[in-house]
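ARCHIVE CARD
CATEGORY: sequence design from structure
SOURCE FIELD: tokenized fold
FIELD CONTENT:
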């Protein structure tokens, strides 16, 4: 009897198991909950951080000798660019008001990583005088960064104390006032004639080789007025050896070097002088490299050390991007070059 009960229970179990197995085979498996990602998995899913760009080495050609404003501006810029992975070697190539260096640049390959540190005098006004083998159209602007300031100062104990008194004195004493400038027929000579129009004011102009000669002759009493950089004029002004009458900075009215001195545009209809210095590339130079250098220039323009170095050298740190830089020079070429060429014919 017990044996029969055991067989009956086993048979019921087997039938029940078969029935459940058959039903389970026809049903879709239940969805299992997805496991939540671990914290470290979330971190690995994030986009990797941008790796720093590799250092790039370039040459900056300066068309003037070592120690001048062009050279110092380039060297301070090169020092600041190193913080942005740009290793800039400054190469001095003086001659012909920068024109020899400019022509040399036009003969280089676009992949030479070579850039030209220059300004309107070399790239616009010199080619307007004669064929120099290049024009500004042979260069691509990277950006503007530095701007020297020029000034007009008078000898110590001159019989005038400001601009209006100077003009009045020249008008009342024709042919007595002597003016020392830099170069006969140069861009600087041209802008001096915009300040003191020779067809309206009778004075004597003497061309010297450079700013040092202007300073020596002015402090020595050999000329009454001198056209020279504000950086060279300031210590002479502070020592009482000369008096700065106006500055001719093109980017701002008052130069921080001597903020009490008016800009020429404040006291006359004369234009300011475009001495601002910019970096130029050879057409065909890698656009990504140009963009990288230009953005680095924008950053270093805000660098306090560079600003201090520029200030102590009589320079203003002022950045313009490639488009703004091109507009700056094209405006000079369109507005001033025809007047310059017409004026130049009168002194040939």
């Amino acid at each position: 009897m017990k044996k029969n009960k055991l067989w009956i229970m086993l048979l019921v179990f087997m039938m029940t198991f078969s029935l459940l197995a058959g039903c389970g085979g026809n049903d879709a498996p239940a969805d299992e909950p997805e496991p939540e990602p671990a914290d470290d998995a979330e971190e690995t899913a994030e986009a990797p951080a941008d790796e720093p760009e590799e250092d790039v080495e370039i040459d900056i050609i300066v068309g003037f000798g070592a120690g001048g404003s062009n050279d110092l501006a380039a060297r301070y810029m090169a020092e600041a660019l190193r913080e942005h992975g740009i290793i800039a070697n400054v190469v001095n190539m003086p001659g012909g008001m920068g024109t020899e260096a400019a022509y040399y640049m036009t003969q280089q390959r676009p992949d030479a990583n070579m850039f030209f540190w220059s300004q309107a005098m070399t790239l616009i006004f010199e080619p307007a005088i004669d064929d120099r083998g290049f024009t500004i159209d042979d260069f691509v602007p990277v950006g503007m960064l530095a701007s020297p300031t020029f000034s007009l100062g008078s000898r110590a104990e001159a019989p005038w104390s400001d601009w209006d008194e100077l003009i009045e004195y020249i008008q009342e004493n024709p042919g007595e006032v002597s003016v020392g400038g830099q170069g006969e027929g140069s861009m600087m000579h041209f802008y001096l004639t915009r300040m003191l129009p020779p067809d309206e004011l009778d004075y004597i102009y003497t061309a010297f080789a450079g700013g040092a000669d202007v300073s020596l002759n002015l402090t020595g009493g050999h000329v009454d007025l001198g056209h020279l950089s504000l950086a060279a004029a300031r210590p002479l002004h502070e020592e009482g050896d000369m008096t700065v009458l106006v500055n001719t900075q093109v980017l701002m009215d008052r130069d921080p070097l001597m903020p009490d001195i008016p800009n020429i545009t404040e006291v006359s209809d004369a234009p300011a002088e475009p001495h601002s210095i910019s970096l130029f590339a050879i057409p065909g130079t890698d656009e990504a490299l140009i963009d990288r250098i230009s953005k680095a220039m924008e950053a270093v323009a805000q660098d306090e050390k560079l600003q201090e170095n520029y200030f102590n050298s009589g320079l203003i740190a002022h950045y313009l991007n490639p488009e703004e830089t091109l507009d700056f020079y094209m405006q000079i070429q369109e507005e001033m070059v025809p007047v310059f060429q017409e004026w130049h014919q009168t002194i040939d």
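CARD ANNOTATION: The longest strand covers residues 140-148. The CA atoms of residues 145 and 319 lie 4 Å apart.
SHELF: design records, drawer C
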